[in-house]
Amino acid sequence: MSEEVDIIEHLLEVERESSQMILDARLEADKIIAESRARAETSFKEQYDSILKDLEQKEASAKEEISKRHEAQLSEYKQSLASAEKDEKAFRSLLDLLLFA
């Protein structure tokens, strides 16, 4: 009977060691996962910030180009209005016709 008790105690000790090994492996895996996640998040943030900065620069450049084109078109339109011939007699006749008819 002593031999059976020794065997059972040995098996229990092996199970305790196995349980400890599994716990150690889980802790190590959690540590590796946490480190990998931190590196991935850092890398993502760096890439995200780089892309965001590039897009913001492109947006600012596009806004500036659109603003310049708009100003040029507006200036051209104002010049065309200023240089257009004005027929005041025809305009007054039209107003008399529309307002007092």
What fraction, in percent, of the residue positions are helical? over 70%
Low-confidence stretches: none
Q: pLDDT average, as an integer?
A: 95
**How many helix segments?**
2
Number of strands: 0
Q: Radius of gyration, Cα only, in angstroms?
A: 42 Å
Distance between the termini: 129 Å
Give the helix/strand class. mainly alpha
In short:
This protein is mostly helical and 101 residues long. Helix content is 94%, strand content 0%.
Describe the structure.
Helices cover about 95% and strands about 0% of the residues. The mean pLDDT is about 95. It starts with a helix and ends with a helix. The chain has about 100 residues and is an all-alpha fold. The longest helix is centred in the middle third of the chain and has 82 residues.
What key phrases describe this protein's structure?
101 residues; mainly alpha; 2 helices; 0% strand; rod-shaped
Write the layout of secondary structure elements.
Blueprint: H1 2-83, H2 88-100
